[in-house]
Amino acid sequence: MRPLRRRLAALLVPVVLAGCQTGAPTGGARPVATIETGAFADAATRTAARGPFVAAANPVAVEAGMAVLRRGGSAVDAAVAIQAVLGLVEPQSSGLGGGAFMMAYDAETGAATAYDGRETAPASATPELFYEDGEPLPFIDAVLSGRSTGAPGAVAMLAMAQKDHGKLAWRDLFGDAERLARDGFTVSPRLSAMINGNSPQARTRWASAYFTRPDGRRYQAGDTLKNPAYAETVARLAAEGPGAIYGGPIGREIAAAVREGPRPGGLSEADIAAYRPLRRDALCRPYQVYVVCVPPPPSSGLALLQFLGMAEKTPDLDKGAQSPEAWVAFGRLQRLMYADRDRYVGDNDFVGVPIAGLLDPDYIARRAALAPQVNGPVPAGAPTGSPPRGVDQTAEPGGTTHFVVVDAWGDAVSMTTTVESLFGNGRMVGGFFLNNQLTDFSFTPQEDGHPAANAVAAGKRPRSSMTPVLILDREGRLVGAVGSPGGSSILAYVAKALVGTLEWNLSMQEAVALPNLVVRGAMVGADTEMISPAIRQALGAAGMPLRPNATETSGLHGAIWRDGRWDAGADPRREGVAVSEVR
């Protein structure tokens, strides 16, 4: 199967790349794909993949999205409704106080657009934001502090995308969230586990007041939880638009909560009012007979594209899901990917990320050639355009979710959204949690005089592992979407799903259910009980002795268009579902 794919790719690549070298077509010539930006024309051939389709981490949120699609809403309209409900029923993962990256596909134009709703550091932030007495703060102290909250971006980003792609009125997208908050929703087993777990964010005075029943017990699975403050917040957002947060009363409340102890933060009303989401060109590269599109930095999608480029030059990966050699290759390529990501990726508006150098085919080939000798942590490479960078000291906890939407016109959304840690920093405003996104910066700003790419700076966006993916064919037609939560492990989880579906020919459900293997430097984590003794032995012999995964587990949601239907997957490690009503 793989040699055939390579032959097809070799035939198609010159046609696709031709679009990068020319401007607008003339003389009635047919426009062709532009790999660099994800912009494709020729709408006449792009009608196969369509919805309604939603995959998300909670059935209630899926139904809210489907209801919007049934009313004639677009994929982005549905995304607004899904986020509003997820922020209520899955507050440990995402919410109105957090940030997000969205990949949006327009079936009419064939354009894949990246929307950047990553939080920003306040104007008062310095590289030593998380220092105290000359030393970096313990990580959990930083998380619980007011210093950890950046200007939230998810709502502003959704408003921008909805203005671009919406079909319904903004005010009509919050009804389900308001109703569920006012009348109550059923606490799920996963939320119950987080409410009653050991996370200190679930034990703050804000969280304890919310999660404690009138009889003094904390809410359990099956209980009905009401959130009248959240109902009021989403009603205000519906009526007033994002200005209710950015320059409005909700923004003032966020700034006031951040100023409270312990360790008050510097995020101000002015910082929140000044926040701007960004519309960016998607970063797209060929993989086999597909084109994979991701957001550019500060997302880490760049690293995923580098991984896929190396994967195409690694024959052992061809051997399938039961092959020890394939899993060893998978782990080795991760070590190479993470070494480069950790050293070079940051906010490209502040530091020069060597995107072209990291994705240069010759550089990718040189890195892939190292894989057979990788039996432990590896140093970062030296791609063209890479300046000296300090060693990264970023810790990335988990508290994230991902969803996919396709509407009846074939427009699509792949969106990863987060409050960073479980329940963010544990502070609440208007019925929702604030983010602790600034702890995604490197606490140590430099080493040996070289700045870390992900050091703190005023107005800067911290590097993110969030990597929502769109998959197109070489004619620019939508054929799939996928993404996952998982902190720094997101890249490994999404790579696994892509390898499983596109390389090993598994269904999307089989691919997302595969054992997780995360290999980042000296850290090796896995779903150890799911991995066969032969594969475990081979990994250990290659310098990857398995231990239970200490990072956030995967929550993959995705689908591939196959045989006129969505071959969908919802990660069995969470509570999500995928629903399709393709007609």
Explain the layout of strands and helices.
Blueprint: H1 2-17, E1 53-56, H2 59-70, H3 75-89, E2 99-106, E3 111-117, E4 131-132, E5 135-136, H4 139-144, H5 154-165, H6 175-183, E6 185-186, H7 189-195, H8 205-211, E7 224-225, H9 228-240, H10 249-258, H11 269-273, E8 278-281, E9 283-287, E10 290-294, H12 301-311, H13 324-344, H14 355-359, H15 361-370, E11 400-406, E12 412-418, E13 428-429, E14 432-433, E15 446-447, E16 450-451, E17 469-473, E18 478-483, H16 490-503, H17 508-513, E19 517-520, E20 523-526, H18 533-541, E21 557-562, E22 565-570, E23 577-580
Question: What does this 3D model show about the protein?
Answer:
The chain has 583 residues and is of the alpha+beta class. Among the domains are: 4-35, no CATH class; 295-375 and 463-580, 4-Layer Sandwich (Glutamine Phosphoribosylpyrophosphate, subunit 1, domain 1). The protein has a 7-stranded antiparallel β-sheet, covered by helices on one side. The protein has a 6-stranded antiparallel β-sheet with strand order 9-10-17-18-21-22. The model is unreliable at 1-47 (pLDDT under 50). Strand 4 and strand 5 form a beta hairpin. Helix 6 packs antiparallel against helix 9, helix 12 (301-311) crosses helix 15 (361-370) and helix 13 crosses helix 18 (533-541). It has 18 helices and 23 strands.
